[in-house]
Design a protein that fits this description.
The longest helix has 10 residues. It is built from ten helices and 40 strands. The protein is globular and about 85 Å long. The strands form nine sheets. Strands 8, 9, 10, 11, 12 and 16 form a six-stranded mixed β-sheet that branches. Among the domains are: about 220 residues, Methylamine Dehydrogenase, Chain H, CATH 2.130.10; about 120 residues, Cupredoxins -  blue copper proteins (Immunoglobulin-like, Sandwich). About 10% of the residues lie in helices and about 35% in strands. Bound molecules: sulfanyl-(tricuprio-$l^{4}-sulfanyl)copper (K7E), dinuclear copper ion and calcium ion. The site of calcium ion (CA) has 9 residues, from loops.
Amino acid sequence: MHDESSNKSGQSGQSVEPGNPARRNFMKTSALASLAGAAGLALAGCGRKGDQVGTAGPAKAAAAAGELSDHVPPGQLDEYYGFWSGGQSGEVRIVGVPSMRELMRIPVFNPDFTIGWGVTNESKRVLGPNFPPGGDCHHPHMSQTDGHYDGRYIFINDKAHTRVARIRCDVMRTDRITDVPNVQAIHGLRVQRAPRTGYVFANGEFLIPAPNDGRDLDDPKKYQTMFSALDGDTMEVAWQVLVDGNLDNTEADYAGKYAISTCYNSEGGMDLPSTMQAERDWVVVFDIARIEAAVKKGDFKTIGSSKVPVLDGRHGSSFTLYIPIPKNPHGINASPDGKYVVANGKLSPTVTVMEWSRIDDWFAGKLKDPRDTVVAEPELGLGPLHTAYDGRGNGYTTLFIDSQIAKWNIEDAIAAHGGKKVNYLRQKIDVAYQPGHCHSSMGETRDADGKWLVSLNKFSKDRFLPTGPLHPDNDQLIDISGETMKLVADGPVYAEPHDVILLHRRLLIDKVKKSWERDDPFFAETVAMAKRHDINVLADSKVIREGRKVFVYMTSAAPIFGLGSFKVKKGDEVTVVVTNIDAVEDVSHGFCITNYGINMEISPGATASATFTADKAGVFWYYCTFFCHAMHMEMSGRMLVEA
Ligand code: K7E
Ligand code: CUA
Ligand code: CA
């Protein structure tokens, strides 16, 4: 799909494709049908790249003067925190950038035996008692204040179970998960940028029958979905807006006035061909102040047992604006200057640039045609999915089918739209292969610094040692600090990140705690329970029996647990509470009971607990799972379950 020249110049960047996007002309529906098959999409951009194997020179070549390097020498810290969505693993990963070293994992929707996520009572309070087996997370976004990352929380969606989670950035632990009612599959997720987060916006992607009570499969008129706003402080769903069509990705402005979502299924189609019928679908803009006013006025209904106000935002509503754009659009990204928002055309080779001030004008009644909010619609290449920004007026758009990233200039695209003969395209770079999101350092905030871009590629094909039929994704690090993009490193990742955020370490490095505060709410309920048992968890190691319920309290200090053994009876419900009284950085203990499915991590200052039924008689050793001391192997004890 590329010019010959692009293959020769390989990954290190290539010349601008001079205003010749016409050859990638608007794709007709017939052509799309063949592309829509997974094989078609996958192969289209992959051809003729085989000759690049083994020529990964640019990846590790010493950085020339003025070029950025991914090399972070031993003992040095990465400049950026990357928060990687873990996709269908259900977790979030912390990755150092530019080294692309994985620093930590944060279990969110997934059980994780390492720290006992899904095992401990503290995590079950977050997950719910009957938590589903995992999640599918796509979009991590940090809370903001006035368009700057504020280091409080990271929010993330679960498409698989229609949920939204919140991660506390001080301890890097998930502290709330909210089920979103009345919709199915939360996909797009964003935060309100100003004055602060504020709302967390969440798209219900799939259309479902209303009510979804097992009667309707084939009556599309009964199908609907909603846009949801959660309160980022309480994690309650604040309100929902019924929309026409479906909802894919979402974005917010920099003034705190609007949210905006893409819709690829304006057709209301129930199968693939019918979702590709229309040449244009739309984005829908939500006027937050008007929605809040309508809620206040009582202009809503509630559905079933849910108390969430549901407003009607379908065509004709005073608080929504539907802007027709081509075709099955996907990502939507606001520019960090606060002026524009770009919808990515996916089945159209274009992106659509809308101006927020014109959206103001439309809601003020000054514009007749919703399309008057569009100020540019540049053609970039095949399969535009997501756009990132460098803070210098350029957009970087992933081209899924072309396996490229297009760098283009926003003001030039606007000038070209106005009829001027300017070339808005700056450069295209090959990526390997099939990029979904790309994300720039600080690029979704006013502090976009135009240093790094990560391209999150769905296919890695030949880039890594074979790992079996399942291949890793390939997250490529690209230097965007100069005039031309330069590929710097490949980063294999476990499926499937979708999206990341990259923030400068200065925003977080002093906010992250190195040990737990004793009054942390994460385990406050457990400590309160101990108090009711007259236990000081920092000092007491003791067994308390209440009927068939047994509470085993113990301290842990390297290399010894406060109890060398304890006794329970078969059939007892046992709660073990362990408190790490080592106030030493990095001395975490674990508590694992052999053959009982129990493991939990207890970091400095923490209290952790797990409850289980003692259903097997015998002696069961418990031991520490984090190597904490020279005598770590000896840090153990015995539970006797009496027959
Ligand atoms: Cu493009 Cu879920 Cu953001 Cu995947 S979404 S790529
Ligand atoms: Cu405590 Cu190992
Ligand atoms: Ca469509």
